């Protein structure tokens, strides 16, 4: 059960951030306080079905998107996947991936 709480929390956080919402704003939208939302996102507290429905409505997403955990991988799994891609790529593709990662990294700050 703990793993589900963590995955769901990470997914809520990821979608919230992708929509440029702060924890404070989403918490306000769903009617809970910010520390509660923080605990949900960190997998420390399981979300009630009522709050889950409010999150889905506030983020304007299909329910299934909230439970799409296929992309959540450990750092080691991600590095291994990236290495497989790079080993199969030519230099132009590697340079392209490098530029894209740097652009993405810069956009985070």
Helix content class = over 70%
- Beta strands, count: 0
Structural class, by secondary structure, is mainly alpha
First-to-last CA distance = 34 Å
- N to C succession of SSEs: HHHHHHH
Compute the CA-based radius of gyration. Answer: 17 Å
Q: Report the average pLDDT across residues.
A: 88
- As for the CATH topology of the largest domain, it is 434 Repressor (Amino-terminal Domain)
CATH homologous group name of the largest domain: lambda repressor-like DNA-binding domains
The main sheet comes to: none
Strand content: under 5%
Query: Domains counted in the coordinates: how many?
Result: 2
Point out poorly predicted stretches.
none
The number of distinct helices, counting runs of at least 4 residues, comes to 7
CATH architecture descriptor name of the largest domain: Orthogonal Bundle
CATH secondary-structure class of the largest domain: Mainly Alpha
Shape: elongated
Give a written overview of the molecule.
The protein has seven helices and no strands. The mean pLDDT is 88. It folds into two domains: 2-66, 434 Repressor (Amino-terminal Domain) (Orthogonal Bundle); 75-108. The chain starts with a helix and ends with a helix. The protein has helices at 2-18, 23-30, 34-41, 49-59, 63-66, 75-87, 91-108. Helix 2 (23-30) crosses helix 3 (34-41).
The gist of it:
With 109 residues, the chain is mostly helical.
